[in-house]
Amino acid sequence: MMKVAVIGSGVGGLASAIRLAKLGCKVSVFEANEFVGGKVNEQWLGKYRFDMGPSVFTEPALIDELIELCGKDLRMFSYRRLEESCRYFFDDGQQVIVPAGLEQTVVCFDKAFGEDPKRTRRFLKRLSKNYHALSPVFIQASLHRLKQWLNKGVFRALARLPYYGMIRTMSAVNQGRFKNPKTAQVFNRMATYNGSSPYRTPGLLNIISHLEFNDGPAMPIGGMVQISKTLHQLCLDLGVEFHLSERVEEILHANNKVQGIRTSQKVVDCEIVVSNMDVHFTYERLLNGMHEPKKILEQEKSSSAIVFYWGMKAVFTELGVHNIFFAKDYEAEFESIFQTKTRYEDPTIYVHITSKVEKGDAPDGSENWFVMVNAPINVGQDWDEFVSETRRTCIAKLSKSLQIDLESYIEEEAQNEPRKIESVYFGKQGSIYGNSSNSAFSAFYRHPNFSKSLKGLYFAGVTVHPGGGIPLALNSAKIVERCVREDFKR
Asked: How many other C-beta atoms lie within 10 A of the C-beta of residue 342?
């Protein structure tokens, strides 16, 4: 029986452990923290429960796929489809509720923004076709193995090349499509789902909007943390061993093959290592003497974030689960982020309130607010001052927009910021998704899911192919499984 060591228990690591255990491997997961799930974990502040990381859940079928792979009842993971995609608050006072579903979105954009329904419908259908053409060959499979380029699906995907918007930025595509700048801004925000700028990333990334508007978001019953809890349970049912609070310090190798790992407690022999750690830190901290792929690792990093977790006295019975308070100058905001500048005046604020659908997440008459602001990576800024000023700015902006004294409603509070993201979740410089997608060919420059120089070493998670977000992390595990099958004839 082949032995596998998985480094890190984020979604990509857990999914990899499940898939390799199903191949008949003996799998052990090593996690530096005392909890599993990586960023998909939870924290209680008094009587308030918070999901600490991702707040948007799409493509739940990928979780169902893993459950079915393990022969379990799909009811072990339950979720509800949300009727609303998001609520948007603009600087001129306009508030727009965007429902989930293609036709509902078309009607909304017509009424709220004056967009031509035919043009909106045509664009959303184009994004759907783009997504379904690309997903099987570029999202669910490796870009870095020749045989992947020799199937009919690739040619079908390439046939749609004129429709992807590769030579224009996301913002340029959206501004050219819609007459109202607010509509373009709504589509542009999807770049934040992988930590990129809509003014730099290619129009191809508009396919994210297909999941948001055509399919619509979902919410796991019990919160986002149920994703990692479900995957953890599947691992346990398959006999996967977990070693929590045990940091991996080195990947051992000889003669261009993996030999095992050295942890803070012991040496473990194994033939396969899957690193769910940030790929930059995997090379810098764990692979002594290995040649680094500098061209990949030296690319621009994705954005980071400042997050405030506020247990609030209930105020807004009309607020939805997802709420976005846009900055007036959206482009200037992103330029500040990717020039790693601190900015205070007018950030876009993302408010996520799970207690709108999970009543147990807050006491009666209260709400749990996850308040996030996109931020630059850590390059030595004065983060204590930056976080403090950002907090004041957020409270002032929200108070003005909602016409209340927000500060007086906060009962519990915690914070997260780039330094903590780096120290707790091992994202280099606080980057959430590794490299950004701020170039036309960034998808081809993400690190592959396997090592080209060390047999038995694989990579999963948001910092490698196919990219950031829960669905892509789950797909990275699918690619790892396929690579292992090919390499070890499983």
From this structure: 16
User: 18 in helix, strand or coil?
Assistant: helix
Average pLDDT (340-365) is: 90
Helices 181-188 and 102-113 pack at an angle, to 10 degrees, of 140
C-alpha distance from residue 174 to each of 100, 188, 334 (Å): 19, 7, 16
Q: Which residues of 439-477 are buried (b: 16+ CB within 10 A; e: fewer)?
A: bbebbeebbbbbbeebbbbbbbbbbbbbbbbbbbbbbbb
CA dihedral defined by 186, 190, 196, 197, rounded to 10 degrees?
-20
Domain C-terminal end among 188, 216, 244: 216
Residue 204 to residue 223: CA distance in whole angstroms: 30
295 and 359 fall within a common domain: no
The larger pLDDT score, comparing residue 162 to residue 280, is at 280
The amino acid that residue 465 corresponds to is H
CA–centroid distance for 261 within its chain: 28
Regarding whether 178 and 123 lie in a shared domain, the answer is yes
| Sequence-distant (≥ 6) Cβ neighbours of residue 81 within 8 angstroms | 100, 216, 217, 218
- Cα gap 100→103, rounded to integer Å: 9
Residue at 97 is within a domain: no
Q: State how far the Cα of 223 lies from the Cα of 51, in Å rounded to an integer.
A: 7
Q: In the predicted model, is pLDDT for residue 490 greater than 70?
A: no
Residue ranges making up the domain that contains 139: 105-216
Question: Mean of the pLDDT values across residues 440-464?
Answer: 90
Fill in the DSSP letter of residue 465. Answer: T
Query: If you search the block for the tokens 């247990």, which residue do you land on?
Result: 311
Which of 158, 193, 216 is a domain's end point? 216
Q: Is residue 84 assigned to a domain?
A: no
Record the pTM: 0.95
Residue 121 lies in a domain: yes
295 and 442 together in one domain = yes
Q: Which residues contact 339 (CB under 8 A, 6 or more apart)?
A: 376
